[in-house]
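Dear Dr. L.,

I hope this message finds you well. Following up on our conversation about the binding site, I have prepared a predicted three-dimensional model of the protein together with adenosine-5'-diphosphate. For your records, I am including the exact sequence and ligand specification that went into the calculation, followed by the structure tokens. Please feel free to forward this to your student if that is useful.
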Amino acid sequence: MLKFENVSKVYDDGFQAVKSISFDIQEGEFLVLIGPSGSGKSTTMKMINKMEPHTSGTISINGKDINSYNPSELRKDIGYVIQQIGLFPHYTIEKNIGIVPQMKGWNDKEIKARVNELLELVGLDPEVYATRYPKELSGGQQQRVGIARALAANPDIILMDEPFSALDPLTREQLQAEVSALHKKLNKTFVFVTHDMDEALKMGDRIAIMKDGKLLQLDTPEKLLHEP
Ligand code: ADP
Ligand code: ADP
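The resulting structure of the complex is given below.
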């Protein structure tokens, strides 16, 4: 459902961050992008929602070239979770989660119901957390809100760029299990970036290994472990 064909990215300063990569992600698949810092993982993610337009090649979603999408429409149809969480500090939790549904024109009642449903889905009691502000939550709780926000408008694709790297090891392990469970439950397509091989092996249906802007290998954890 998400297809890259010979996709490259050259930044304005002439640096080529991604070099002719091709891959195909199935609907409902959990793909992990792994590689050292600077290997082009974030750039690959940003090209999917046109935060960074690709320079050449073709990216398509369900057979439709992303060049034919309006960038802000595309961003509303793709959930994005980043390491720095990026909640708006002056908005309550419910307002943070409701941003995209509101932009899509949902009414207040629909938004409220969706916010409550999502808070429950990520293990936060709406009665307690809906009206709090981000700084009143722990890092792990804030990242749960970040995940709820990315899911808010029911996107088909969820992008997660090192979502747990700022968390302590225990919280990180908990959230890994929770995101795997969410993936099973929702059956959405996930693309997840990490530089941690344990995390990749634990979470990925398939793992794409990037280095110096190139895609070196793309395979299941079993194959990567047993047929190096
Ligand atoms: P990763 O996510 O694997 O750490 P990135 O995709 O962030 O890698 O970056 C890949 C390469 O592109 C790095 O060398 C980085 O310095 C460079 N890069 C990233 N963003 C820009 C930019 N806006 N302008 C120029 N070069 C950039
Ligand atoms: P527009 O271009 O229509 O004003 P944007 O797509 O720029 O809207 O989004 C505005 C803000 O809403 C962004 O800064 C981002 O934090 C948040 N946002 C937008 N789309 C999503 C999404 N799918 N998941 C999570 N947050 C989003």
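In brief: The longest helix spans residues 169-186.

With kind regards,
A. P.
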